[in-house]
User: Which sequence fits this backbone?
């Protein structure tokens, strides 16, 4: 399929590059991976051309700004990353758009940077890499707490989507992974970490306060669509501490959207499609952690969707969702 749009596509700057090294894959791949994730020119564009991806929203690699414990440094790195993305967008406006990196260490600074990116740089929304560390490497701050309500008010006022992207749990908070470090990252821990964060947001009353918020999660919803029935069934009996005024599944289906990034499997995709509906699903690749060839090769051929839904999920949903000016 030609004309696909993708938006879990990552770049890096020198200040955030090393944090990605453990996810580069097999030994010996680091130099090539570095070239891929730093390149915003011909190599990335050539891959897009070969795989039928017309347009891609670019975002900073994980954990990115969220892993910087010094607030002043986090603000500076976020600004540099966003200016780097903006430069690439200005060079290739028909191929790239931007998602803002945000210094969530300071909710007021994050609001300011998101506003700058949207109103001055023309970015389409934000991508934040999970919880934030601040002042201490052992800290983990989640965005359902009251200190972030004014930030969410800014997101609501700007009416732009917010992509909640995975990051790995801190070793000091991950005793259940002890002896099995492979579990902590992409094979399992990414989905666990991101799904818990998303469910915390659903259960915090946030979407009662700001019902127009639109959040995106990748990897076919980080297992949440599969579990929604079970969550709501048991919540009838044990809702202690739940602050939403509606069933959690209803909140999730009203305010969350899901991409195919890094999860190219027909049965899992069909389950997600059945639960979410084609209108709330989007194509994405997760480049360069995944290849565009794998993402597009599966998506273009999967028999579990109609041609109409393939176009919708691969292109037209994204044009409407992000407000893209594409034909």
Assistant:
């Amino acid at each position: 399929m030609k004309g696909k749009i993708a938006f879990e596509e990552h770049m890096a700057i020198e200040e955030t590059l090393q944090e990605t090294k453990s996810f580069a894959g097999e030994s010996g791949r680091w130099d090539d991976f570095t070239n891929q994730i730093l390149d915003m020119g011909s190599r990335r564009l050539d891959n897009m051309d070969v795989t039928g991806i017309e347009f891609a929203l670019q975002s900073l690699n994980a954990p990115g700004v969220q892993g910087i414990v010094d607030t002043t440094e986090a603000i500076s790195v976020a600004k540099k990353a966003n200016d780097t993305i903006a430069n690439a967008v200005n060079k290739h406006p028909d191929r790239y758009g931007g998602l803002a990196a945000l210094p969530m260490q300071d909710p007021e600074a994050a609001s300011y940077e998101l506003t700058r990116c949207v109103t001055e740089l023309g970015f389409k929304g934000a991508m934040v890499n999970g919880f934030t560390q601040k002042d201490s490497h052992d800290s983990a701050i989640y965005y359902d707490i009251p200190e972030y309500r004014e930030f969410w008010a800014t997101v609501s006022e700007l009416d732009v989507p917010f992509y909640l992207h995975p990051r790995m749990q801190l070793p000091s908070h991950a005793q259940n992974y002890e002896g099995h470090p492979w579990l902590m990252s992409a094979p399992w821990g990414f989905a666990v970490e991101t799904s818990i964060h998303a469910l915390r947001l659903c259960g915090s009353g946030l979407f009662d306060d700001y019902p127009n918020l639109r959040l995106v999660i990748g990897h076919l919803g980080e297992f949440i669509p599969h579990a929604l029935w079970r969550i709501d069934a048991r919540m009838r009996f044990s809702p202690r501490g739940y602050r939403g005024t509606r069933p959690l599944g209803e909140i999730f289906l009203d305010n969350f959207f899901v991409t195919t990034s890094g999860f190219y499997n027909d049965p899992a995709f069909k389950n997600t499609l059945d639960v979410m509906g084609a209108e709330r699903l989007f194509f994405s690749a997760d480049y360069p952690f995944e290849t565009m060839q794998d993402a597009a090769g599966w998506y273009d051929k999967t028999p579990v969707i109609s041609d109409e839904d393939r176009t919708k999920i691969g292109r037209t949903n994204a044009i409407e969702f992000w407000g893209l000016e594409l034909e």
The longest strand covers residues 4-11.
